[in-house]
Amino acid sequence: MHDEIEKVLISEEELQAKIHEIGQDITKEYDGRFPLIIGVLKGALPFMADVTKRIDTHIEIDFMDVSSYGNSMVSSGEVKIIKDLDTTVEGRDVIILEDIIDSGNTLSYLVSLIKHRGANSLKIITLLDKPDGRNVDLIPDVAGFTVPDEFVVGYGLDYAEKYRNLPYIGILKPEVYKGS
Ligand code: 5GP
Ligand code: MG
Ligand code: MG
What we know:
EC 2.4.2.8, nucleotide-binding, purine salvage, 6-stranded mixed sheet, globular, Rossmann fold
């Protein structure tokens, strides 16, 4: 599997160091507020798992699954709820954890949904930000790393459902796409 990677963009060590920092910042800001942390499936799963272990105050976690891409590499602009939250967000301090913000379509939909449901506050934390891909006005409150406008995989991010289990962020060799 690793021989299908052309280049490692962000190493496991760099990811973990940044995630440690983000966890400490959440602890400081939300201590005593019992925030609701929403992970966006499936991509944010490794980020969610690692960052929550670095938070030293009570939190609640929940997940949402929305689709905008399907198996394609280009955003359709359409967002559909596949799995909704189990929890009500009304009056809660909500943190959305995302793997990557590209066009921003997925997140702008989620942001309006959470606001509409009456959250007390909302913070967007994304591991990766691809500002060049944006087609809506959306700036995350926290972005772990800025990445170039290239298709990245690993650490939750897939290509045709593969590569989510890589411990780093990388770029695939071009022949991997040709073979599919
Ligand atoms: P957006 O709606 O901001 O365009 O992107 C939404 C989702 O598309 C992300 O949460 C992620 O699942 C997927 N996505 C965007 N850019 C990339 C990328 O470079 N690589 C992979 N594997 N998925 C991406
Ligand atoms: Mg995602
Ligand atoms: Mg995907």
